[in-house]
TrEMBL record:
<dbReference type="InterPro" id="IPR045054">
    <property type="entry name" value="P4HA-like"/>
</dbReference>
<keyword id="KW-0560">Oxidoreductase</keyword>
<dbReference type="GO" id="GO:0005506">
    <property type="term" value="F:iron ion binding"/>
</dbReference>
<feature type="domain" description="Fe2OG dioxygenase">
    <location>
        <begin position="172"/>
        <end position="281"/>
    </location>
</feature>
<protein>
    <submittedName>
        <fullName>Procollagen-proline dioxygenase</fullName>
    </submittedName>
</protein>
<keyword id="KW-0408">Iron</keyword>
<keyword id="KW-0223">Dioxygenase</keyword>
<keyword id="KW-0479">Metal-binding</keyword>
<dbReference type="InterPro" id="IPR044862">
    <property type="entry name" value="Pro_4_hyd_alph_FE2OG_OXY"/>
</dbReference>
<dbReference type="GO" id="GO:0004656">
    <property type="term" value="F:procollagen-proline 4-dioxygenase activity"/>
</dbReference>
<keyword id="KW-0847">Vitamin C</keyword>
<dbReference type="InterPro" id="IPR005123">
    <property type="entry name" value="Oxoglu/Fe-dep_dioxygenase_dom"/>
</dbReference>
<dbReference type="InterPro" id="IPR006620">
    <property type="entry name" value="Pro_4_hyd_alph"/>
</dbReference>
<dbReference type="GO" id="GO:0031418">
    <property type="term" value="F:L-ascorbic acid binding"/>
</dbReference>
<dbReference type="Pfam" id="PF13640">
    <property type="entry name" value="2OG-FeII_Oxy_3"/>
</dbReference>
Length: 286
């Protein structure tokens, strides 16, 4: 049983001292698990110290409470003015928090992203729940690649637009990920947030905290299949070139929303290209 869910000053100093000495976050998590800390709590403490922010509420309470919905961070209205274009809202769901917008990207931008990705695609990987390392698994039969933040003028412009729509700091975002699905390829239903009770997820969270929201951007139209599905809500979003689907799943209390279970349905005819942005609680990367 975990009885050490308050991050005392001594533990805070211990984490800070070890980080300064160059200890890996994985080594710190392992020590804290041996001292009977909850894995998710340990990960959050380390992330808080590393990012110099206050720790979040104690997890055993948080896990017991139902997810508390907060006002969507996406601006209200049918049209949302971003710095370089106006996007049109085509769907809003409040529980879970989902917003679909059209005309988020131009056809030319979509085409450029596809062309720049095509030659560097590799089989897609996910975070292994046990080890926290990226692993190729059968549940995700797509291929993909990444663009680092600021990698090119196109990526910088998109990252700024994404951050404005998601209303979340640009430097909290992971690099844009591109996915390509051929016929039969799919991404089985999953959560984008890290599972706190799995050591791999806890390890991921030490870096920049939990993932808080996703933006899936559709780069082409799929002839048949390939919808983004939310099986527990019963909705499916049909890919449309230039449109984007936002969903948020981690609130200001650090709770995560299981209603955001979602997947990419198998492509039946044609192919599917998407770009995905995941936002984190804290600053991501350098
Ligand atoms: O392919 C899709 O529509 C969903 C992709 C997805 O869930 C993800 O990239 O995390
Ligand atoms: Fe996902």
């Amino acid at each position: 049983m975990t009885n050490t869910n308050d991050m005392s000053t001594s533990w805070r100093n211990w984490i800070a001292g070890n980080l300064q000495r160059g200890c890996t976050q994985q080594a710190l998590i392992e020590s804290m698990l041996q001292a009977d800390f909850d894995a998710a709590f340990a990960a959050n403490c380390i992330a808080c110290v590393a990012n110099d922010v206050s720790p979040q509420p104690e997890p055993s309470n948080k896990a017991k409470l139902p997810y508390q919905y907060e006002t969507s961070l996406v601006a209200a209205g049918n049209n949302i003015d971003l710095f370089d274009r106006s996007v049109k809202v085509s769907l809003r769901v409040s529980r879970p928090d989902i917003v679909v917008v059209d005309e988020f990207m131009s056809g030319e931008e979509c085409e450029q992203l596809i062309e720049q990705s095509r030659r560097k695609l590799t089989p897609s990987a996910i975070v292994d729940p046990q080890t926290g390392k990226f692993q190729v698994i059968a549940d995700r039969s797509s291929e993909g690649t990444y663009f680092q933040r600021g990698e090119s003028p196109l990526i910088s412009r998109l990252d700024r637009r994404i951050s404005e729509l998601m209303n979340w700091p640009e430097d909290h975002g992971e690099g844009i990920q591109i996915l390509h699905y051929g016929v039969g390829a799919q991404y089985k239903p999953h959560f984008d947030y890290f599972l706190e009770n799995e050591s791999g997820g806890a390890l991921q969270m030490t870096q920049s905290g939990q993932r808080v929201a996703t933006l899936v951007m559709y780069l082409n139209e799929v002839t048949e299949g390939g919808e983004t599905v939310f099986p527990d809500v019963g909705i499916s979003i049909t890919p449309k070139r230039g449109s984007a689907a936002y969903f948020a799943y981690c609130n200001s209390l650090g709770q995560v929303d299981p209603a955001t279970l979602h997947g990419g349905a198998p492509v039946l005819t044609g192919e599917k290209w998407i770009a995905t942005k995941w936002m984190r609680q804290y600053k991501y990367g350098s």
